[in-house]
Every structure is written in C-alpha cells, then in structure tokens.
Design goal:
Blueprint lengths: L16 H9 L4 H12 L4 H5 L6 E2 L4 E4 L8 E4 L2 H14 L7 E3 L5 E3 L2 H15 L7 H14 L4 H8 L4 H5 L1 H4 L10 H5 L4
Antiparallel strand pairs: 1-2, 2-3, 4-5
Amino acid sequence: MLPSIERPKKLPVVLSFREVKRLLKAPKLLKHRLVLALLYGCGLRCFELCNLQLKDLDFDRMMLHIRQGKGRKDRYVPLSKMQIRGLQTYLRAEQPSIWCFTGNNSEGKAVPLSTQGVRWIVSEARKHSGIRKQVTTHSLRHSYATHLLEMGLDIMSVKDLLGHADIQTTLTYLHVAQLGRQKSFSPLDKLYKQD
C-alpha cells in the first residue's frame, strides 16, 4: 500500500505519446533530435544532458551513466537501440572529444552545450511541431516518468531512474499518470455510445 500523498498544487505538463513523436521529429539536425531523445528517453535534467561525456555512454550494456546529478548522486539509466543508433551516427560525423554535445564559446572553442542552448532546442522543436502546451526541458522528464508508470513500471524503479532522493517527489506522477483498473473517461463518452 502506498503512503497517502497530498495532491501537489501544480501538476506537471505531460506530453502525449503522439506529441512526443511530433516533437522528436521536428528538428532537422540529428544533434537536436538526439538532445530531445535523451531528455525524454532517459529522463535527464537539462544540466545532466549538458554534462554528458563520451565516457558516460555504454553502448554494450545499453546504459547511460549520469555522473553527479542533483544531490551529487550518480545513476545509470537505460538507452534504447534507437538512441544508440542515432548517437553512433552523430559521433562518427561530429567526432566530439570529451563532451557528447558541444557549443562554441566567443573564441570559437568547443565547450559543453549550455543549458540555454538546450532550452532553445526544445523551444524551437515545440514551435515547429505545432504543440500548444508549454513545453520545457523538464516537461520531457515529466513525460518520461508518467509514460513509464503508464507502461507498467513500478514507482520505486521510476524513483531510481529519475534520481529522486525522496519517494514523495516521484509520487506526484501518480496524479498525472492514467493508471488503475479502468482508464478515466468523460460521462459524455458513455452517454453517446447508448444511441
């Protein structure tokens, strides 16, 4: 039995599966599609994505090592085959040396991609996808957690994948996930099926 939880005052913005697909398809650049795919597909925080280094990619084990996430904690999250194929193509083409994703500083020197750069990628993808919801980098993390719960992953596993210190933080997703014996519906759906 789960502990009783107080409903959070503000629930997170969660994208539908269709909206995630539209968002991932929106950017023309593979690098930008991969940034979105890692934010959503691994539930990364913006700064965690910016700090990703080549040594953190474990294609053999299909895992991503997140070093010094929030609370200075390390964790592993699974990588999908699709992410690995995209990353391998990107790495062959771009040949980064330390950081997975780079930007350029004022002298034109490669530096880790900035959080501002990641936010811009998400904002542009939202614009081009036609999604009207307020989509932020964290919306992709919220969608990751909610979708995992809806797909049947248990709350403790989701907590570990997100790197949450406290289960109360993860329990918020139970308010937005469509779970239970029967999916919620509007009475109008049933009312007009009677005819």
